[in-house]
Amino acid sequence: MTLKLQTRTTQGKQNRILRREGIVPGSISLNNKETVLVQVNAQDALSLLKVNGAQMFQVEVEGGKTYNVVLSELIINPLNNKLENFSLTELTPNSHVTVRVPITITGIAPAVKNNLGTLVTNIPELRITVNSENIIDSLSVDISGLEETGSRILVSGIPGIENIKLASEKDRTLTVVTVRPLRQLPASGQQLAAAAAENGTAEAAPAEG
């Protein structure tokens, strides 16, 4: 995806005028620590809502300058649900940018399929440090090996994770998913009576006459 942006001269409260005119203000943080002020019409800005924080895309700023970027922040007005501001970060081979990568669950856990337990996702995303040459847009975790309650998959068990630089190395010991035992609900009176009958402990019915 390539998003065309215009340079912006307004700042602070002046950006309210842009929003009233259907223009969304934004910024690009460059690798050299400089910041480029930009803007885009609200219709084109909607494409940013489809981008996750670990997806690299290209922007072309007025004048022909292009940048490879990741989305850093979106500010949405909770009252009207309209995009009010966006922040982008340039990504280069020399960058060290921390992004949030979503974790995708694949497969079916036998423990869940056999009604032994329920799957609990503890970490929906993972923070990693990347540059333009090693960025990934998602991580995949296969749960088809979770056959018992208490089974779990750690971050360190994600395929290829050993080649990825985490924002915090402590995250390698975190649990991504686990199978939690199903809760046993209190038995009803009918269930208790049926169980007692099966065990031969049910009271004999009084004889007639």
Give an overview of the whole structure.
The protein has 209 residues and is mostly beta strands. The protein folds into two domains: 90 residues, Ribosomal Protein L25, Chain P; 84 residues, RNA Polymerase Alpha Subunit, Chain A, domain 2. The chain contains four helices and twelve strands; from the N terminus they run βαββαββββαβββββα.
Please outline the helices and strands.
Layout: E1 2-7, H1 15-20, E2 23-29, E3 35-41, H2 42-45, E4 57-61, E5 65-76, E6 83-90, E7 97-106, H3 110-113, E8 117-121, E9 125-130, E10 139-142, E11 152-154, E12 175-181, H4 189-198
Parallel strand pairs: 1-4, 2-6, 7-10
Antiparallel strand pairs: 1-3, 2-3, 4-5, 5-6, 7-9, 8-12, 11-12
CATH-level-2 architecture of the largest domain: Beta Barrel
Helix content: 10-25%
The end-to-end span amounts to 89 Å
Classification by helices and strands: mainly beta
DSSP E strands, number: 12
Q: Which range does the strand content fall in?
A: 35-45%
Query: What does the oligomeric state look like here?
Result: single chain
**Overall radius of gyration:** 27 Å
In which order are the strands of the major sheet placed?
1-3-2-6-5-4
What overall form do the CA principal axes indicate?
elongated
Determine the CATH topology of the largest domain: Ribosomal Protein L25, Chain P
For the record, the count of structural domains works out to: 2
Unreliably modeled segments: none
Query: At the first level of CATH, what is the class of the largest domain?
Result: Mainly Beta
